[in-house]
Design goal:
Blueprint lengths: L1 E2 L5 H10 L5 H12 L13 H10 E2 L4 E7 L6 E6 L5 E9 L2 E5 L3 E3 L14 E4 L2 H12 L5 E6 L9 H11 L12 E5 L3 H9 L5 E5 L5 H7 L8 H15 L3 E7 L7 H10 L6 E7 L13 H11 L6 E3 L13 H9 L1 H6 L1
Parallel strand pairs: 1-2, 6-9, 9-10, 10-11, 11-12, 12-13, 13-14
Antiparallel strand pairs: 3-4, 4-5, 5-6, 7-8
Length: about 350
């Protein structure tokens, strides 16, 4: 069967025509899936029972079972654990912002990049998610969102390690015939794969890019992010500049701040040297979201503020982003890890 939510409009239209349906049936199907949020073909009452049965045999709607759903009492953040047919699960987070929501989607089950401060890395890479599974995460979370919707590829996995599926999901989510999301409202966050960064720039998808930097030089970056450390920081930053020049978007450098690890004066000095008024970089300080499974600690608010202030003037902007949903395991991999440690039977029961 074809994964319907991984198809662009023309691909879907060709498949529908191949079933002998009239062209306008494609628009009816799109309306049911992307606007009315139909969960199955049985809901499509303007098609005959025989047509619905043929669609059911031809297309997979990629159901993802919600096996956990937590809501933060502090800020309204929602975290979902969604399970595919093969039993593997991925996390999706919906965060309320001023005037809109942001949905953080996963691109892989697990991750091979082994970042020391990330719970997802404990499992390694299990498999890539399909474009349809990425799109379905957005559709699942969207029912709780009002106003505009932003998408960030900052969940489980390295998006550029699953390049083709991520690119196809972006094309589907921004397709004008569906309930489209503007490309400028989509950000891909990567640990840094220079050739893939350049390839993304050349596709002219008009999405934004963020680099998970987290260290001020190659040696300390390799210690925190072993696989990403194989790509030198100068090469990675050069790829970011290429992306910015091609897309005319500034690139955000994300820096997870870890107490006593990457928050020292020498880190500030080295980071300032990476910036400059001629560089297309914004800087985002992210105090680490604590997890008892890992050894790191979050810096106190004073240290965070001082660190950010010391970087002012070296980048186009410097901001601090405090993690949302701290009370509901909202950091990448936390909910999945918690349920895994608590036993598969509890996860299966939801």
């Amino acid at each position: 069967m074809l994964a319907l939510k991984g198809l662009l409009y023309d691909e879907l239209a060709a498949a529908v025509a191949g079933l002998g349906f009239e062209r306008y049936r494609t628009d009816q199907i799109v309306d049911w899936i992307y606007r009315k949020r139909a969960a199955d073909f049985g809901a499509m009452t303007n098609l005959s029972a025989e047509q619905r049965a043929r669609l059911h045999s031809a297309f997979d709607l990629t159901p993802l079972d919600e096996i956990a759903h937590q809501v933060s009492a502090h800020d309204g953040t929602r975290k979902f654990l969604l399970r595919a047919r093969d039993g593997e699960a991925a996390e999706t987070v919906l965060m309320p912002m001023d005037g809109h929501h942001t949905v953080c989607v996963s691109s892989q089950v697990g991750c091979r990049f082994a970042c020391k401060f990330c719970v997802t890395a404990r499992r390694g890479l299990v498999r890539n998610l399909g474009a349809d599974e990425i799109v379905q995460q957005v559709l699942h979370a969207r029912r709780w969102a009002d106003g505009g919707l932003n998408i960030v590829f900052m969940g489980m996995g390295e998006p550029l390690d699953n390049f083709d599926a991520v690119v196809q999901s972006i094309r589907v989510l921004t397709a004008p015939q569906f309930a489209p999301i503007g490309a400028r409202r989509i950000t891909v966050s990567t640990t840094g794969i220079p050739d893939r960064i350049r390839a993304l720039a050349d596709l002219d998808l008009r999405v934004k890019l963020a680099l998970s930097l987290n260290a001020s030089d190659d040696a300390s970056r390799k210690a925190l992010m072993p696989v990403s450390g194989r790509n030198s920081l100068p090469d990675t930053l050069a790829a970011l500049e290429y992306f910015a020049a091609r897309t005319r978007h500034h690139v955000t450098l994300e820096y997870v701040l870890l107490r006593g690890v990457n928050d020292q004066d020498e880190d500030v000095t080295r980071l300032r040297a990476l910036g400059g008024v001629d560089k297309p970089f914004k800087f985002n300080v992210i105090p680490w979201n604590p997890d008892p499974q890992l050894k790191f600690e979050r810096p106190d608010a004073g240290t965070v503020a001082a660190f950010a202030a010391a970087l002012e003037g070296a980048f186009r902007s410097v901001s601090v982003r405090w993690s949302k949903g701290v009370d509901i395991d909202a950091a990448c991999g936390q909910l999945f890890g918690k349920l895994q440690d608590g036993g598969a039977s509890r996860a299966a029961a939801g």
